[in-house]
Specification:
Length: about 300
């Protein structure tokens, strides 16, 4: 089966005009509003937006006037039913957030879920997104990645959230991690991440697509130190590399750990505890423990 060729008719409406179209908008540079995004905004009966003043500025920059309806975290649940009814009567809406892709750490999920439940056609105009741009610029492995959005603002809860990721990593999960963070919490967040996840490569992407765009790449601990000295400004996305692969355990280190354990434990128990602690296969530890005991390298426990 051959894939359909790309649609080269840039602004032509889709065959089935969606009831709701999710439109990505710039994350700092007004020039990043795509021609299709502009056409979708123009084509909508009304634009659902987080902050009407903010969206008005975007529309004005492109010489556009449209009816705006506020849709944000505090009214989305309550507004969704009315908006779905309007779509069922044939109205067409575009959904934008203040910046970037709607729904991504932004409102819209509840409305999308309600539209799907009502069987309404939905679509999206892809475009700017801070998480993916930061990931691409970070120099860290682009996939797999885990987009977390914002961590809790308080250190205790933030550490708990990071500890959940560390536990998943200890169980074998491995991915580059993406977080949104406020500038005044960046240093504390980097510090908590270094302590909870262990020091590792990371990148702080600041003010992407804007005049003072910057990506600083270093280890978590060094970045924490830097931003504790130099308070960052602007919008920030934090990328943390995957947990470094532990260096393979040498025979010598395994033998040392087993000798130590065999002084107080039986072969099977010593092998189990060492295997678990050092993350080596149980059978490998067991075979070495038997060999050490047979060589009478270590005496039996009392
Ligand atoms: N929906 C947006 C997107 O697709 O990127 C994200 C919205 S979220 C409420 C806003 C957060 O995204 C900011 O606090 C910051 O962490 C990150 N962000 C947004 N714009 C950014 C930029 N220009 N540079 C770096 N991070 C940015």
């Amino acid at each position: 089966m051959t894939a359909e060729p790309p649609n080269t008719r840039i602004n032509e409406p889709e065959a089935r005009r969606p009831a709701l179209v999710l439109v990505s908008t710039p994350i700092g540079n007004l020039g990043d509003l795509s021609p299709r995004a502009l056409a979708a905004l123009q084509d909508a009966d009304a634009i659902l937006c987080e902050d009407t003043r903010h969206t008005m500025t975007l529309l004005a920059a492109h010489g556009l006037r449209r009816r705006l309806i506020a849709l944000h975290d505090h009214n989305e649940e309550q507004r969704s039913a009315g908006l779905i009814a309007a779509m069922q009567r044939g109205e067409h809406f575009a959904l934008v957030s203040d910046a970037g892709a709607p729904l991504i750490a932004d409102p819209g999920f509840r409305l999308v879920r309600a539209a799907l439940a009502a069987g309404l056609p939905i679509s999206a105009i892809p475009g700017p997104n801070a998480a993916l741009m930061a990931l691409a610029l970070s120099g860290l492995p682009p996939q797999p990645f885990l987009f977390h959005g914002f961590l809790p603002p308080r250190s205790g809860q933030r550490r708990t959230a990071l500890a959940h990721i560390a536990a998943a990593e200890a169980a074998g999960f491995s991915a580059t991690l993406i977080f949104y963070e406020a500038p005044h919490r960046l240093a504390a967040c980097l510090h908590d991440a270094a302590e909870t996840l262990g020091d590792r490569p990371a990148a702080v992407a600041r003010e992407l697509t804007k005049r003072f765009e910057e990506v600083r790449r270093d280890t978590l601990a060094s970045l924490a130190e830097f931003y504790a000295e130099v308070a960052p400004r602007g919008e920030i996305t934090l990328i943390i590399g995957p947990r470094p692969e532990p260096a393979p355990l040498s025979e010598q280190s395994l033998d040392e750990a087993l000798r130590d354990a065999l002084r107080t434990q039986r072969v099977r128990d010593a092998a189990s505890s060492v295997a678990e602690r050092l993350g080596v296969p149980r059978n490998r530890a067991y075979q070495r423990a038997i060999a050490l005991r047979a060589a009478d390298d270590v005496g039996a426990p009392d």
